[in-house]
């Protein structure tokens, strides 16, 4: 099994931890409150949310239910992280989070994993994540459980200004307005929720110290997100939202930790 440098999480476990943190934020529960509502302790949740320990499948299920997110979506990320943890599949972060990829499992003998990736957000996007089909599951004739209803957004328009897209439930089915690859290799996207009438930006494949700012070209106070540690650098990180009605132009500007030139791109809602 491939080992990551000390302090660096494997990519799939980092994505799972990021999604679980966003879910917990959306519930509004502290770690202590989360422990009282689940079968897992406060210290266990701290390890799961930081990515230091791969959570049990049951822990992911319980947090999904509390967050009002379809269980199958959460478990798809857990399946990828568990496969990476056990060495059944090669670990490699996606260059494009909407990519569709088919690759053999790491054993290379008679097993084929088809991964249909539609990741979020967190995105942040929302929590639309991969659906994983293993060869052994293809013959499972059990009916799939009915999908859970999408969470109701908690803000709209001006009331979303400066708020988290995850906490406000605006990242469930976002639109990608534009994307950009920086000279340092970071991936950036401008995202938009028509139900919340608000936009935000997200970044991944970043470095500690990188910063992303979001503004409207019509003028408003910038909203920013900064990579503060190695776990954040391996995750999808989002700016707070800004009000954005049809016709509004939003702009994202990336400031690398190396102090290089600022890179900006924009899109019209």
Automatic annotation (TrEMBL):
All residue ranges annotated as the HTH cro/C1-type domain in the record: 19-74
TM spans (from-to): 112-136
SUPFAM superfamilies: lambda repressor-like DNA-binding domains
GO molecular function: DNA binding
Keywords noted in UniProt: Membrane, Transmembrane, Transmembrane helix
Matching CDD domains: HTH_XRE (cd00093)
Chain coiled-coil ranges: none
Keyword Membrane: yes
Keyword Transmembrane helix found: yes
Name of the protein described by the UniProt record: DUF2690 domain-containing protein
Annotated organism of origin: Streptomyces tuirus
